[in-house]
Design goal:
This protein has 507 residues and is of the alpha/beta class. The chain has three domains: 210 residues, NADH-ubiquinone oxidoreductase 51kDa subunit (Rossmann fold, 3-Layer(aba) Sandwich); 83 residues, Ubiquitin-like (UB roll) (Roll), CATH 3.10.20; 161 residues, NADH-ubiquinone oxidoreductase 51kDa subunit, iron-sulphur binding domain (de novo design (two linked rop proteins)). It is built from 20 helices and twelve strands. β7 and β8 form a beta hairpin. The two termini are 29 Å apart.
């Protein structure tokens, strides 16, 4: 196989140690150019570039910025929120970017602030991301001391490890002092502060679980608008304004221009993170970053995080692009590809994914939480050959109902992943139903906490996490939304991580 072409647009080869070093390497030219241009012209340039959000959904970034500009409030300032709450299993790209160079992410955020008229930038990170938090805080201090950030206020918010903290509306909720529960919100994510906080009392008739006032078009209310963009998305912005939209499109595909930072873990010779050109075949990405499978093994499936359906071995030549991955019933997600070879039991994988999503569901939507936990139990029984026929008989209807009335995408993820195993790997299910497959425990699906020496390190404490988001020996029976609904984020109890090598999981 030919060597994959290497690119270095957002994931730098060498660590940039200071703002001075960054600017000596032409960093800041994109911001300088942007400050000379009308904000709407910036939006038009971004739209022409075709940049799509790298947080998972792939939504056109220019369209998002335009929506913000068109719905700005005339009464209160806009905020740019950098979503660095990376928690998708199998993904380590945002932390890799921030470790190498937080300055171009900050520059991208400052350009975004100019484009949408924001007076504040908040980096939403996890408290457990000690290295990344330190690097961003240093970058902010340098930017403020040098005057590089102008009149834009810069902050770092350190949030919890919960998976939903990375969901846009849940991120905004947490920044405002509440727990990471997704809310119903318009596309421009209005309402960073609650009505109660602004006016000293609850507003009658509010239907939001978090008592949040949502602004309508035209800035008709005093709810502060917020633009939320992913770390990798903003890392792309400076060079677009330094070199132009046409330059950005010199690599990639028509619908997915540019590059994407991919993480490869699982059943490969080694694990790692690298930047690849959009449209590169998945097989080539796995070979280049992961070194292929171990000797004597073959790939059975690839899981792009827990947001999309599993990719069958027959589909490995599919280009890594939004349109191509969607065409095979899967997705790019956040560029994290977990490889499973022919030694991996995919029913156990489905059970692991189902447990992760069932536990991490907040409980605001009953089908998502209770239905998700039911699916998790059915898959656990199926993988361990306990009442397998009964479990399999209930599976399809349970999966079909889990996303009913869901307010965020988590339940749809649950449906997509489990359905893909049922549909694309029926022989795996049949082997457990018939008793031909040996009992296996659920595969550990959890957040990556690091990649060291080519080995991915998982958050092993997740094995002990209960559906109420505690680590008690016995599940209380309460759902997170009920147990924490009246509390404040500042009351959160943090628990130290337990690192587990992914090789320990495989063994």
């Amino acid at each position: 196989m030919r060597a994959m072409r290497k690119v270095r647009r957002v994931l730098f080869a060498a660590t940039i140690g200071s703002l001075e070093e960054y600017r000596a390497k032409r960093g800041g030219e994109g911001l300088a150019a942007a400050l000379e241009v009308d904000p709407m012209a910036l939006v038009e340039t971004l739209e022409a570039s075709g940049l799509r959000g790298r947080g998972g959904a792939g939504f056109p970034t220019g369209r998002k910025w335009r929506t913000m500009v068109e719905n700005r409030s005339e009464r209160v300032g806009t905020t740019v929120v950098v979503n660095g709450a990376e928690g998708e299993p199998g993904t380590f790209k945002d932390r890799s970017i921030l470790r190498k160079n937080p300055y171009h992410v900050l520059e991208g955020a400052l350009i975004a602030a100019h484009a949408v008229g924001a007076d504040r930038v908040i980096f939403g990170l996890k408290r457990s991301f000690a290295i990344e938090v330190a690097r961003v805080r240093t970058a902010i201090a340098e930017a403020e001391a040098s005057g590089w950030s102008g009149d834009v206020a810069l902050e770092v918010f350190e949030g919890p490890d919960e998976y939903l903290y990375g969901e846009e509306t849940a991120l905004l909720e947490t920044i405002d002092g509440r727990y990471p529960f997704p809310r119903l919100a318009p596309p421009f994510r209005r309402g960073v502060r609650s009505f109660e906080e602004r006016h000293g009392g609850a507003r009658p008739g509010v239907t939001s679980a978090a008592n949040v006032q949502m602004a309508g078009p035209g800035g008709a209310t005093d709810a502060p608008p917020a633009l939320v963009d992913n770390v990798e998305t903003l890392a792309n912005v400076p060079r677009i304004f330094q070199r132009g939209a046409a330059w950005f499109r010199t690599v990639g595909t028509e619908e997915s221009p540019g590059t994407i930072v991919c993480t490869v873990t699982g059943s490969t010779r080694h694990h790692g993170v690298a930047e690849v050109i959009m449209g590169t075949p998945l097989r080539e990405v796995i070979e280049s970053i992961g070194g292929g499978t171990k000797e004597g093994r073959r790939i059975k499936a690839v899981m792009p995080g827990v947001a999309n359906g599993l990719i069958h071995a027959d589909q490995l030549d599919t280009p890594v692009s939004y349109e191509a991955m969607s065409a095979i019933g899967s997705g790019v997600g956040s560029g994290g590809f977990i490889v499973m070879d022919d030694s991996v039991d995919l029913v156990a994988v489905a059970a692991g994914v189902s447990r992760f999503l069932g536990v991490e569901s907040c409980g605001q939507c009953t089908p998502c939480k209770q239905g998700g936990l039911k699916i998790s139990g059915l898959l656990r029984d199926l993988s361990q050959s306990k009442g397998a026929e009964r479990a399999f008989a209930s599976m399809e209807s349970s999966v079909a109902a889990v996303a009913d009335s869901a307010r965020c995408y988590l339940a749809h993820q649950h449906e997509a992943v489990v359905h893909s195993v049922l549909e694309r790997f029926p022989e795996e299910m049949a082997a457990h139903v018939s008793g031909q497959a040996p009992p296996v425990p659920p595969y550990l699906v959890a957040e990556l906490v690091d990649i060291t020496g080519g080995v991915a390190i998982l958050d092993g404490r997740f094995r002990d996490k209960q559906p109420d988001w505690t680590y008690e020996e016995v599940f209380s029976g309460k759902l997170p939304a009920d147990r924490l609904g009246e509390g404040r984020y500042g009351e959160w109890t943090f628990r130290p991580r337990e690192w587990v090598s992914i090789t320990d999981v495989d063994d």
